Amino acid sequence: VQLQASGGGLVQAGGSLRLSCEVSGRTFSGDGVGWFRQAPGKDREFMAVISWNGGSTDYADSVKGRFTISADNAKDTVYLQMNSLKPEDTAVYYCAAHIIPSYSNADPRAYNYWGQGTLVTVSS
Questions:
Q1: Per residue in 50-67, pLDDT tens?
Q2: What was the pLDDT predicted at 73?
Q3: What is the mean pLDDT of the chain?
Q4: How far is residue 95 CA from its own chain's centroid?
């Protein structure tokens, strides 16, 4: 399984970006994909997760109402629409797949596969 994250870039505060995560080699119909971010000197932080079947979602409190996660099963792609961006949203954003039930969806250990990350920079 390979994940390819894209869509990062430089945006002004208040702006929007849409990140994409293309999943290849997926043989399972269940489980889901999560988005995390990591700012310099900080731990990897959970943003959002979506299940492939049914599309149930969950978000970190810090992004509820601003970020929206969605999935296109036909394209094996998960998106993260980010609106009302703030300078503190600056980070490398990672997508990850295959949720291990013994861990919380917000725990990076729940995910077997990770993309390479895409940098989001929000200027003030």
A1: 988 767 999 999 999 999
A2: 86
A3: 92
A4: 5
With CA atoms as reference, report the closest residue to 23 among 67, 74, 58, 65.
74
Distance CA 11, CA 55 (A): 28
Instruction: Write out residues in the chain with pLDDT < 70, as ranges.
Output: 27-30, 54
* DSSP-derived secondary structure for 82-107: E-S--GGG-EEEEEEEEE-TTS-TTS
Q: What is the DSSP string of 22-89?
A: EEES---SSSEEEEEEE-TTS--EEEEEEETTT--EEE-TTTTTTEEEEEEGGGTEEEEEE-S--GGG
From its phi and psi, is residue 78 left (phi > 0), alpha (psi between -120 and 50) or beta? beta
Show the tokens assigned to 99.
């949720």
| CA atoms in the 13 A half-sphere facing the CB of 78 | 31
Helix (H) or strand (E) holding 113, with range, is strand 111-114
Answer for the pair 82, 60: CB distance below 8 angstroms, yes or no: no
